[in-house]
Structure formats: C-alpha cells, structure tokens
C-alpha cells in the first residue's frame, strides 16, 4: 500500500529515461519547528554567554554586549527566515524507477537516483528529530555526488519508506555500481 506522500509511476524524458524534475511531496510541517530549534541551538549559546559575561564584568560590558548584538541580530533573522524558506524548497518523491529529492535553502539541490543505483537505505533520527516525531532517510547510491538525504519526514512514514525502498531495490536488476 502506498502512502499519500508517495507517487508511483514512470517519469520519462524524451528518450524514455529518467529526468531531473522537482519532486512533488513536501516534508512534514513539523520540520519548520525542528529547523527553528536547530537554528536557535546554534545562535543562542554565544549570545547568552556574552550577555552573562557582560553582567558579571561591568568594565567590559560594552565590549561584550557589542558582539552579542552583532551575533543576535543576524542570528534572529536566520532563526526566523531559514526554517520557512527551507520548508518551501525541501521536497521528495519516490516512483517505481527512482528517488527524487530537493533540498537546501541558499544553495538548492535537486537529485534523482535510479533504483538500480541504490546501495543502502537508512533512517536517521537525531535528538531534536525525536522530540518532534521526525526522521530522515538517507539513500546511498553508487554516485560520487554522495547520498540523497530526505530530512523532516514523519518517523513512521520514514520507516515505511525505508522498508519499501529496500524491497524495491532488491527487486531491481543490477548491482548498484
């Protein structure tokens, strides 16, 4: 049984082969909160340390608050903008023939991997992903470009996707090289 987030069918180019095109399925909407949490964990600690030191060392207050401000202003913009922008870009899809993924936010990347080139399929769940009920799927291929990563999926959907992709690649002729 296919989930509502998976599309099946052959996508061919003019020569009947696979073609690079935007994948159709968005990641889970909880990914916005996950990416926001990741960004906050990156930005908040240096700002908090500088503010705490400014409170503890009054003669150096100006010189500690100035870099805190220099970090906090662009950091707040990053925390506010990046997760929503990424959500608009990140897409994924699987067909009987390939796995499609689009990712990034400044440097955007589209990837397609034919089933015959897939070597392994893994699920990844970091601590923040677990808190938000999310997971990532890593599709390792016989490509120098590296693995295809689909992050921000519901963890149950990700596990189901890994199971289906594994079964599909086992049924695909070829040695994935």
UniProtKB/TrEMBL annotation:
<protein>
    <submittedName>
        <fullName>Membrane protein YdbS with pleckstrin-like domain</fullName>
    </submittedName>
</protein>
<keyword id="KW-0812">Transmembrane</keyword>
<feature type="region of interest" description="Disordered">
    <location>
        <begin position="1"/>
        <end position="24"/>
    </location>
</feature>
<feature type="transmembrane region" description="Helical">
    <location>
        <begin position="63"/>
        <end position="81"/>
    </location>
</feature>
<keyword id="KW-1133">Transmembrane helix</keyword>
<keyword id="KW-0472">Membrane</keyword>
<dbReference type="InterPro" id="IPR005182">
    <property type="entry name" value="YdbS-like_PH"/>
</dbReference>
<dbReference type="Pfam" id="PF03703">
    <property type="entry name" value="bPH_2"/>
</dbReference>
<feature type="domain" description="YdbS-like PH">
    <location>
        <begin position="88"/>
        <end position="160"/>
    </location>
</feature>
<feature type="transmembrane region" description="Helical">
    <location>
        <begin position="39"/>
        <end position="57"/>
    </location>
</feature>
């Amino acid at each position: 049984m296919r989930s509502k987030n998976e599309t099946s069918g052959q996508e061919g180019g003019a020569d009947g082969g696979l073609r690079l095109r935007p994948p159709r399925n968005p990641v889970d909407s909880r990914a916005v909160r996950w990416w926001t949490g990741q960004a906050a964990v990156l930005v908040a600690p240096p700002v908090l340390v500088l503010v705490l030191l400014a409170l503890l060392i009054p003669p150096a207050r100006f010189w500690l608050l100035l870099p805190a401000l220099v970090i906090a202003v662009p950091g707040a913009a990053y925390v506010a903008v990046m997760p929503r922008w990424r959500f608009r870009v990140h897409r994924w899809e699987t067909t009987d023939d390939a796995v499609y993924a689009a990712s990034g936010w400044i440097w955007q990347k589209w990837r397609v991997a034919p089933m015959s080139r897939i070597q392994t399929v893994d699920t990844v769940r970091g601590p923040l992903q677990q808190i938000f009920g999310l997971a990532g799927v890593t599709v390792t291929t016989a490509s120098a470009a590296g693995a295809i990563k689909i992050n921000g999926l519901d963890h149950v959907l990700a596990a189901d996707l890994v199971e289906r992709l594994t079964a599909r690649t086992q049924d695909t002729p070829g040695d994935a090289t």
